Amino acid sequence: MSQIKIFDTTLRDGEQSPGVNLNKLEKLEIARQLERFGVDRMEAGFPASSKGDFEAVKAIADTIKNTSVIGLARTIKSDVDIAWDALKGAENPAIHLFLATSPIHMEYKLKKTPEEVIETAVSMVSYAKQKFKEIEWSAEDATRSDWKFLAEIIEKVIDAGATVINLPDTVGYTTPVEYGKLFRYISENVPNIDQVELSCHCHNDLGMAVANSIAAVENGATQVEGTINGIGERAGNAALEEVAVALKIRSDYYPYETGLKLNEIKRTSDIVAKLTGMYVQANKAIIGRNAFAHESGIHQDGVLKNAETYEIITPELVGVTSNTLFLGKHSGRHAFKDKVKEFGVELSEAEVKEAFDQFKKLTDHKKEVTDDDLYTIVMEIKTDSSSINKYQLEKFQVQYGTENVPTATVVLKTPDGKTVENSCPGQGSVEALYKTIDSLIQENIKLVDYQLNSVGGGKDALAESHVQLIVNGETVNGRGSAQDVLQASANAFINAVNRYMIKINTAKMKELVSE
Length: 515
Ligand SMILES: CC(=O)SCCNC(=O)CCNC(=O)[C@H](O)C(C)(C)COP(=O)(O)OP(=O)(O)OC[C@H]1O[C@@H](n2cnc3c(N)ncnc32)[C@H](O)[C@@H]1OP(=O)(O)O
Ligand SMILES: CC(C)C(=O)C(=O)O
Ligand SMILES: [Mg+2]
Known about the structure:
Elements: E1 2-3, E2 5-8, H1 24-37, E3 41-45, H2 51-63, E4 68-74, H3 77-87, E5 94-100, H4 103-110, H5 114-129, E6 134-140, H6 147-160, E7 164-169, H7 176-189, E8 197-202, H8 209-218, E9 223-226, H9 240-249, E10 256-257, H10 265-276, H11 297-305, H12 333-342, H13 349-365, H14 371-382, E11 392-399, E12 407-413, E13 419-425, H15 429-440, E14 445-455, E15 462-471, E16 474-482, H16 485-514
Parallel strand pairs: 1-10, 2-3, 2-9, 3-4, 4-5, 5-6, 6-7, 7-8, 8-9
Antiparallel strand pairs: 11-12, 12-13, 14-15, 15-16
Helix pairs in contact: 1-2, 1-10, 2-3, 5-6, 6-7, 7-8, 8-9, 13-14, 15-16
Bound molecules: acetyl coenzyme *A, 3-methyl-2-oxobutanoic acid and magnesium ion.
The site of acetyl coenzyme *A has 15 residues, from strand 5 and helix 4.
GO molecular function: 2-isopropylmalate synthase activity
Binding site for Mn(2+): 13, 201, 203, 237
InterPro entries: 2-IPM_HCS-like, 2-isopropylmalate_synth_dimer, AIPM/Hcit_synth_CS, Aldolase_TIM, LeuA/HCS_post-cat, LeuA_allosteric_dom_sf, LeuA_bact_synth, PYR_CT
């Protein structure tokens, strides 16, 4: 079996999904889970793109030790310098430089001739080599590039010091046979190709990202790039869990394996869905709710006689277990801490206290607190700490009846410690609630997206809400959970506003420091 490396870009290309906006703490929690999952490389972000991304990449580089941490950069000196500042604390600092090679990108986007593109790529790889030992170079839009030109530029960037060459299908344009031929061509026509690793990076615009990635592996790729749950720009990237499980299940045919711990798939998928707000559809391969459900009689009959008649993957393989019954009203702190440890999440003493208090409160209303419930509580605590004063929901009431105009009354504490109160009507309960909260906040707020999901099943399941707001022109996401759907909705709205407050306060503090 040959070992295929897994390069995860959930935190960079995945975060390019419209509407996804992760903060530093959320990125750090996802990075920790990716490390547990066993990815070989993780692209933590694009350090030169914003201060927030710089700080997140730096925090991940300084924390993650068992996975190589990489940052994306354009072929611009300042991007390379900023990437170095973010990544120099990593165990093995690595940079991912990209430059487009297709005629359309070179002429219209970069406004460079092919010769200038070669000269820029070579000089920036050489420049980066003064700092980084490991350099991945990507020929952006490789699948719409001239193959002879690709072979020429690749040979030169390898001579300049690149250690990994990536041939991205940037716009999801290729098909498995064609992409396979491209890898074969590059393997056979670049004389120094054996000095580097060859990587594939597929987008899913035509629904072929996973198939294309496997075709690349069959034709010489030694690394697959992708994201958890296939999130990413437009229709997304290749879903890594699908690639890994396909290689495992079809090991009778494919002589390749990955170092991923497949039984961490469910947990990795869950944390990414929860923190990005991009939930997977029920029929999603590998981890969708229906992936292991058998509905029709003939299938059920077959499965009862021998599960393998209709089941090629077992739920246990990918870490889908029946949602373990967790602790109850009478459970103590020790059992609680043990459970949190099992999740692989580290909590400080103060965080344990906060999580335990919330868990106890939940047991007053919910007989059976499950792993999913507890994980939701723990993640809220791990990803939402900030020392700045924030808006706090003191109390609220919503009146709703089929014959009444829904009306909400809300009492809020503002960041400067004042208590404010108002009531507003709305078309529905959530609208009334949101209008009232909005009226109490001195910012210009527009609601762009609202989602409500249940955590697990049952009448008493926790509700989890995601919102996207535009606050004074800035897009921010918010997340909230509670047993009541209106409380979860209110929490999500206020969480988004508080993230905006954190964002502008951090920017203001930086200005003061630099003055
Ligand atoms: C295929 C991919 O996924 S590539 C990664 C895409 N990801 C992102 O763009 C997310 C983060 N991006 C950003 O925050 C911003 O685009 C920034 C901060 C990087 C740049 O912002 P701005 O300076 O305002 O430039 P803007 O985004 O409008 O345009 C991009 C510029 O980079 C140039 N550029 C694009 N790719 C490259 C490259 N690989 N190397 C050098 N320059 C490049 C473009 O030609 C354009 O230059 P121009 O201003 O001279 O025309
Ligand atoms: C930055 C590059 C590798 C990319 O994401 C793409 O081309 O899709
Ligand atoms: Mg991409």
